[in-house]
Amino acid sequence: MGIGCRRGAKKELLEAGLWKVLEANGAGIKDVAAFASIDLKRDEAGILELVDKYGIPFYTYSAEELQAVKEVSSRSKFVRQTVGVDNVCERAARLACPRGRLIQPKLCTEGAAFALVKKCLRILIFAGTTEGRLVSEKLAGLPVDIWVSTATEYGKECILSGASPEAIHVTAGRMDEQAIESFIREQDIHLVVDATHPYACEVTKNISAACTACGTAYLRCLREQGGIGGKARERMVWKKSVGEAVEYLKATEGNIFLSTGSKELRRYTEIPDYRERCYARVLSTKEAVEASVALGFQGAHLIAMQGPFSKEMNTLMLRETKAKYFVTKESGKAGGFLEKAEAANATGAVLVVIGRPEETGMSVDGTVEYIKGLL
Q1: Which of 106, 141, 276, 361 is deepest in the core (most CB within 10 A)?
Q2: CA distances (Å), 327 to each of 45, 197, 212, 270, in order?
Q3: 340-367: per-residue pLDDT in tens?
Q4: Three-state SS for 148?
């Protein structure tokens, strides 16, 4: 609770203002961890009487320290001329609770001004998938500060399309382990949620290592499985890696429809006559298209579109390309794995599936409930 007041303000008036602010925010005196003000008020009788009555710590800061706080909701020339800083209560509350969020901007009462800052969880979400977007949307509005990291500008746009820009901070650009560690320390992150793609093993490794180095809590958010089992799964060709899938496809004949992304397309160039046999579906980004073209996938053999795709769209593409093999990752429900399997079954194509790496973690809802339990 940040407090600013006129010299000689009575304890009764300060207390009335205090309760007005608390009630307006659905809080009680037991929720107040500290009072804070400028050092000129360290001997202010009215404030000291409040401190004594409720047994709450009282911190004071110099005008120079208060001025270092950049964000305030309002500024007063009169207050600045009087004490050397234009907003005492908000700045003092922020200094006393650096890991907090301002929930009550400066509120003036008779002879005083108050502000409330609530300590909140600072969360960094690595969102390379639908799961990262869903977690950030479900957490928005809670007493948490959310940073979301995406590898590309396209990913950033996807996150911002589903949540208010004011609710989260989104940054785009790939980070290695050292960069992740620096970000965690600079932003004083309390919890990291790894909601990257199920196959982004190196990224997950870097995130986990950075959290260990910083002593920061780490939580893996997993993509929901595709819901295909029994004989349907048995009819598919399962491989542990793209390399294994390539070796399998080398011994086959007929066209191949690839939907495993642009990053690993180079491996498919090992297939004899890949320029004629293979059709690659990649994201509709400049980087993905340019990388694919550089490898020899172009013209009718390169399809740049944003998924996930319906059964009908997958079926159409398989038929148009006369594909006998449909290569995909086990992309789960969010990645349209069921629709891919249904399309392969409808066209008679063999579904070649790159299995997921084994890992443990929580679902989207489980992740959100876990975080709520920390608040």
Answers
A1: 106
A2: 76, 17, 36, 15
A3: 999 999 999 999 999 887 778 898 999 9
A4: strand
CA distance 282 to 271: 18
List strands edge to edge, sheet with 191-195: 168-172, 144-150, 121-127, 191-195, 217-220
- What is the sign, positive or negative, of the torsion defined by CA atoms of 55, 372, 198, 259? negative
pTM for this entry: 0.59
- In order, the DSSP letters of 284-316 are SSHHHHHHHHHTT--GGGEEE--S---HHHHHH
Please state, in angstroms and as integers, the Cα–Cα distance from residue 225 to each residue in 205, 288, 313, 336, following that order: 21, 26, 21, 10
What architecture does CATH give domain 2-119? 2-Layer Sandwich (3.30)
How many other C-beta atoms lie within 10 A of the C-beta of residue 373? 7
CATH architecture for the domain at 121-222+360-372? 3-Layer(aba) Sandwich (3.40)
